[in-house]
C-alpha cells in the first residue's frame, strides 16, 4: 500500500507536536514519527512551565505570548488539565527586592503583565511560601503549568483524533530523500518534512548540525509525590537565583549588584548554573530543579551535590507539607547561543527546527505558527 501525507514530522517532542498541530490546522495531512514507544526527551523531563516572564522583551516575549495563546486553545480541546497559575518571584534580600521593584516599574511598558506585591499579601495568596525574611514578590499573570507527561500522552492522541494525524511511535526515521521518508519499517511519500529531533545531532543531517552552533545543556530535576489532602501551592515559584538566570531581568540596572553578591556568597550555585524553581502538577506532585551543565561537562552520571544545593536553597523559600523526594532524573536540551531557536534547510522541502533551549515548552507553538507562515 502506498503511504502518503503532505507533511512528515520527525520527533514526538513538544516541538514536533506543535509543528504537527500547526500543519494539521492548515488542512495538511500529517504523519508524525517518534522513534520511542513514548517520547522520552526533554519534552517529558521538564517543569511544564509555560513561562513568558522569563523571555527578554521583543521577539522572544512576543513569541512566548503568542505561544501561550495557542496553548490555551489546545489544552481544553485536548482535555489536558493545566494550572493557569501565574508566577511569583520572591525576594528575601534587599537587592532582590530592589530588582523586582525596578522590573515591576519598567516591565509593563515592555509587555510584561506584572506588579510588586508586599510580603503579607504574597503569604495570603501562596500557602507554601516561607514567611521568615520575606520582603515581597513580583506577581506575573502569564504563566501556565502543564504536566509534561500528560501532554506527551494526550496531545498526540488528540491530534490523531481531531485532525487525523497519523502517529508512528516506535518508528525511527533513518533517511529523507523527498518525496521519500524511510523509517525502520516503512517508506512514506511526502511533500515536506519537518525534522524536530531535539538534541539528536547525529541521526539525520549531521553536517548541518556541525555548523549550526547548537550545543547541549544538562539539567537535574526532582519531584515529590502528590501533596497530601489535595494541598495546593498555587502559582509557580522562583526566587533570587532565577533573577540572574532569566534574561528578562537584564533590563534592570539593579541586576549587577545582585549577580555580584550571589557570585561571592554562593559560588557553588554559579558553578553548576543552579537556579531553583517549583511548579505543582495538576495532580499534586511538585516538580523542582534545576542546574545547567554544558557541552563537555555533561556526564551520564548525576551529581548528588547538585540535588542537595537545590533542596537547600528551596528550603529558604518553600515549605511543603510533604517535601520527601519521590523521583530524580536529568534532561538534556539543545540550545542556540544567540537565536530563540535553530531553523535550517538541509534539502529542498526539508526543514530542521530545534534548539529552543530552556524555553521549548514556552515557545514551541509560537515557533510552529511562525515557521509555517513563512
Ligand atoms: C529538565 C528540563 C526542564 C525544562 N523546563 C522547561 C520549562 O519548564 N519550560 C520550558 O519552556 N522549557 C523547559 N525546558 C526546555 C524544553 O523541555 C525543551 O526545549 C523542549 O522539550 C525541546 O523539545 P524538542 O521537541 O526539540 O526535543 P525532545 O523533547 O528531545 O524531542 C525530540 C524527539 O525526537 C525524537 N527523534 C529524534 N530523532 C528521531 C528520528 N530520526 N526518528 C524518530 N524520532 C526521532 C526523539 O526520540 C525525541 O522524542 C526544559 C528542559 C529540560 C531538559
CATH T-level fold name of the largest domain: D-Amino Acid Oxidase, Chain A, domain 2
Low-pLDDT stretches are: none
- Give the averaged pLDDT, no decimals: 96
Helix/strand structural class: alpha+beta
Q: What small molecules does the structure contain?
A: flavin-adenine dinucleotide
> Sheet bearing the most strands, described?
9 strands, mixed
Tell me the name of the CATH class of the largest domain.
Alpha Beta
Domains, number:
2
Strand % is 25-35%
> Can you give the helix content as a percent range?
25-40%
From the spread of the alpha carbons, the general shape counts as: globular
Number of strands: 19
3D structure, described in words:
The protein has 374 residues and is α+β, with helices and mostly antiparallel strands. It has two domains: 3-45 and 149-211 and 338-373, FAD/NAD(P)-binding domain (3-Layer(bba) Sandwich), CATH 3.50.50; 87-141 and 215-335, D-Amino Acid Oxidase, subunit A, domain 2 (D-Amino Acid Oxidase, Chain A, domain 2), CATH 3.30.9.10. The chain is 33% helix and 26% strand. Strands 4, 5, 6, 12, 13, 14, 15, 16 and 17 form a nine-stranded mixed β-sheet that branches. Strands 1, 2, 8, 9, 10, 11, 18 and 19 form an eight-stranded mixed β-sheet that branches. It has a two-stranded antiparallel ribbon with strand order 3-7. Helix 1 packs parallel to helix 6, helix 1 (14-25) runs parallel beside helix 12 (360-373) and helix 3 packs across helix 12. The longest helix is centred in the N-terminal third of the chain and has 19 residues, at 59-77. The radius of gyration is 21 Å and the shape is globular. The two termini are 33 Å apart. The mean pLDDT is 96. The chain binds flavin-adenine dinucleotide. Flavin-adenine dinucleotide binds next to helix 1, strand 2, helix 2, strand 12 and strand 17.
Amino acid at each position: 500500500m502506498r503511504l502518503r501525507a503532505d507533511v512528515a514530522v520527525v520527533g514526538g517532542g513538544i516541538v514536533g507536536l506543535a509543528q504537527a498541530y500547526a500543519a494539521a490546522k492548515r488542512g495538511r495531512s500529517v504523519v508524525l514519527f517518534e522513534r520511542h514507544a513514548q517520547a522520552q526527551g526533554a519534552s517529558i523531563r521538564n517543569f511544564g512551565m509555560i513561562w513568558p516572564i522569563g523571555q527578554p522583551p521583543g521577539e522572544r516575549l512576543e513569541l512566548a505570548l503568542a505561544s501561550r495563546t495557542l496553548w490555551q486553545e489546545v489544552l481544553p480541546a485536548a482535555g489536558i488539565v493545566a494550572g493557569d497559575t501565574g508566577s511569583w518571584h520572591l525576594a528575601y534580600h534587599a537587592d532582590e527586592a530592589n530588582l523586582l521593584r525596578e522590573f515591576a516599574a519598567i516591565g509593563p511598558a515592555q509587555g510584561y503583565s506584572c506588579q510588586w506585591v508586599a510580603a503579607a499579601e504574597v503569604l495570603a495568596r501562596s500557602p507554601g511560601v516561607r514567611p521568615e525574611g520575606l520582603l515581597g514578590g513580583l506577581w506575573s499573570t502569564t504563566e501556565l503549568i502543564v504536566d509534561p507527561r500528560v501532554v506527551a500522552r494526550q496531545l498526540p492522541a488528540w491530534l490523531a483524533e481531531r485532525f487525523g494525524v497519523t502517529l508512528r511511535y516506535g518508528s525511527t526515521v533513518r533517511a529523507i530523500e523527498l518525496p521519500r521518508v524511510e523509517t525502520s519499517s516503512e517508506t512514506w511519500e511526502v511533500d515536506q518534512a519537518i525534522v524536530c529531533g531535539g538534541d539528536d545531532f547525529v541521526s539525520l543531517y549531521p553536517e548541518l548540525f556541525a555548523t549550526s552552533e547548537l550545543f547541549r545543556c544538562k539539567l537535574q530535576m526532582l519531584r515529590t509525590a502528590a501533596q497530601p489532602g489535595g494541598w495546593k501551592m498555587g502559582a509557580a515559584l522562583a526566587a533570587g537565583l532565577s533573577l540572574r538566570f532569566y534574561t528578562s531581568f537584564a533590563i534592570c540596572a539593579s541586576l549587577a549588584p545582585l549577580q555580584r553578591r550571589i557570585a561571592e556568597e554562593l559560588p557553588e550555585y554559579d558553578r553548576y548554573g543552579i537556579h531553583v524553581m517549583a511548579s505543582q502538577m495538576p495532580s499534586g506532585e511538585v516538580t523542582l530543579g534545576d542546574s545547567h551543565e554544558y557541552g563537555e561537562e555533561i556526564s551520564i552520571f548525576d551529581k548528588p551535590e547538585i540535588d542537595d544545593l537545590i533542596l537547600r536553597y528551596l528550603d529558604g523559600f518553600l515549605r511543603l507539607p510533604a517535601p520527601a523526594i519521590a523521583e530524580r532524573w536529568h534532561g538534556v536540551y539543545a540550545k542556540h547561543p544567540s537565536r530563540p531557536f535553530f531553523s535550517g534547510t538541509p534539502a529542498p522541502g526539508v526543514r530542521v527546527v530545534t534548539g529552543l533551549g530552556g524555553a521549548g515548552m514556552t515557545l514551541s507553538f509560537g515557533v510552529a505558527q511562525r515557521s509555517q507562515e513563512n
